[in-house]
Prior knowledge:
Blueprint: H1 2-9, E1 20-27, H2 29-32, E2 35-36, H3 50-55, H4 60-63, E3 79-83, E4 86-89, E5 100-101, H5 103-114, E6 119-125, H6 146-160, H7 162-165, E7 174-182, H8 185-188, H9 191-195, H10 197-211, E8 219-222, H11 234-247, E9 256-259, H12 283-301
Parallel strand pairs: 1-6, 1-7, 3-6, 7-8, 8-9
Antiparallel strand pairs: 2-5, 3-4
Helix pairs in contact: 5-12, 10-11
Amino acid sequence: SWLTAVVLFAAFAQGGEKPVKVFILAGQSNMEGQGFIKADPKRNEGKGSLEYLVKNPSTAAKFKKLTAPNDSWAVRDDVWIHYLDRKGKLTAGYGAKEDRIGPELGFGFVVGDLFEEPVLLIKLAWGGKSLAKDFRPPSSGGEVGPYYKEIVGRSKAILANLDKEFPALAGKGYQLTGFGWHQGWNDRVNQAFNDEYEKNMANFIRDIRKDLGVGGLPFVIAETGMTGPNESHPRALSLMKAQAAVAGYPEFKGNVAFVGTKAFWREKEDSPSGQGYHWNTNAETYYLIGESMGQAMKGLCNK
């Protein structure tokens, strides 16, 4: 019932421990994350891979913090991640596969630096999922999306068993602090889904807050901006417009932010692949999406 949810989510720390700051990151394949870690020297010198970014003089300064002194990937000792069947301290490799990154890396670095308390990212993302059907929120009517139920159910289960899932965080308690969303392709390619996206997005935010027992939970929507500033398809444009519109609702002022991502598009010549719907599998793109989501979340948390 809603009451047990409220009690569950008010499980703050006893005594002097500072509660773990918990963020849920949800969406479809671009939240899973398809950014290549390893450079393929046979394809355009490995451009757009994480390895290339840390070695290339034009990007090395920005991305150096992702590496450890021995040339391995840095592991955060203050940020943990739980992503379906994988969990641990945050580092490169929590994308769709262990050789990829998604928005979690940039996001985790921003919020990890923001808070003195430990941070936990709960990542709940599955490829090829629509908001109209798979993530359909209860308030939109019709059948509640099975993956909406997964987000609510898995989040509650992880938090109820936090001490077992992450012994290092045992006894600290937690505070559900924010929710990040990067999704849209499956609604972008379907006119009927497209037409109801704005309504469904607003309902999703309201329902998630209610079902997780945190009114006004800060919420960041990252634009489904793949194909970049030159996108001209009417459905793509209307979907991005719908995502931005929701953040402008009076009820969401100061607690929902929209993050534009079209500027993070990199052409296939500068990327590991030409998979446009996966941002050309460019690691820089995925990092920048996560980083900008983190910065927007920082703004909401500081309000």
